[in-house]
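Hi D.,

Good news: the full-assembly prediction came through. Inputs first.
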Amino acid sequence: MKKWSIKIKIIFWYTLFFALLIIFDFYFLQSTTTRVLTEQASNTVRDATIEVADMVKVEDDGIYLEEDDDEERFNYYHDGVLFLVYKNNTVSFGTIPNQFDGSSEIRLNQVQSLETNGGYWLVYDIQIEDGYILRGIYDMNSVMNSIRQVIRVAGILSPIIVLIAGIGGYIIIKRSFKPIQEIYQTAAMIKDEEDYSKRISSSDSKDEVYALADMVNQMLDQVEESINREKQFSSNVSHELRTPLTVVQAQTEYLLKKADSTKQKAEIETIIHQISYMENIVNQLLEITRTKQLSDNDMESVDLYELVHYTLDSFVDKMNEKKITYHIEKPEFSTNIFCNQTMMIRVFSNLIANAIKYNKESGKIEIKFVLEKQNIIVFVSDNGSGISKEHLTKIFDAFYRVDEARTQNDSSLGLGLALVKEVVRIHGGDVDVESTLTIGTTFKVVLPQYTSEKKV
Ligand code: ADP
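Then the structure:
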């Protein structure tokens, strides 16, 4: 039950409680009605028998009723009660009703209930003159049938009422919880796609849950605004730094030509090296910013296998330098994706460049394509240095380098994988890594397959 949603818990308890309430009501109604009607019938049979016993007169040719001065023949039926007159325990006047056992035991001055041959009767016996006994009989069958009828109707209606209450409750609760579900889905989408433009859809309802959804939307507006401001800021900074950096580089190169001592030259060369390092950073930051601004107009249908193959070919010389061998497997399925070709080449250039840079001499690079649920997965594996667990989660962060001291002097900026992640994310995909130290690393890039009917 712990795993049930709040919706199901509320519906379950509410329907169970309602069902128990109806069962209790049902039982109470049945027992009270039976008791009250039986009591009423007992009074009727007793009163009617006592009343008739006072007036009844037995003659040789029959029974008569004495009313005031009149004398009329007793009709054996009075006030819903049927009468029999017994002499020596056998019926001597009156007609025994159907199903009734006329020979049942006589018990004077008390109401007896008799169940005979499937019939149900209330009986009252009184001694009248000359050893005759007057027996009043009240037929309870019709009473019991009415009660049974009520129970049957209630028995059919109750489950229907419980069902209607359950379904009605479910619909109301489902509607009330819809914004919560949406809050969850929106938060999940923002987490997965890092798309802060997503919002919870609004509704005409003005209840508490919608007020919460509205508040979350307002919060998201603020978050999106500050993220956009931050993006704009880094884009502006990169742009603004570019021109002065170019000027400084040109001027320094000019100074280098003019420098006459070797010491001066060496110092200026260090400055030039640092300037080109800074230029690299600015260019890559601009590239990441540009990726964030990509729209559908910058995308086209591209064969991913061809793109990766072409990128790999451009690294043949570098691989040969390290005697690295490679293998790329041509897949059987369509590897079309909808992407910005230049950016996608940057993704695989970065991954292949890393697979070479962090590989050993005579190492191997393997590229494999797999199709899973309309997603193309590209595995880029190497058998190089590998990455330890503590670094694995951080390598996609901007400026993160595992071996900062070692990579400081080469072109490593720690921005390559940050760009890979951003480009793949913009294309609706995901990138992941698995690695074992000294054994090797595998990058897994997931991208939606593109078919002409759908644009991903
Ligand atoms: P860099 O410019 O330093 O290569 P990246 O963002 O491309 O920056 O990579 C970040 C860090 O992840 C690198 O410094 C490196 O330590 C590690 N890394 C990336 N790819 C591999 C790989 N194939 N094998 C081992 N380490 C890798």
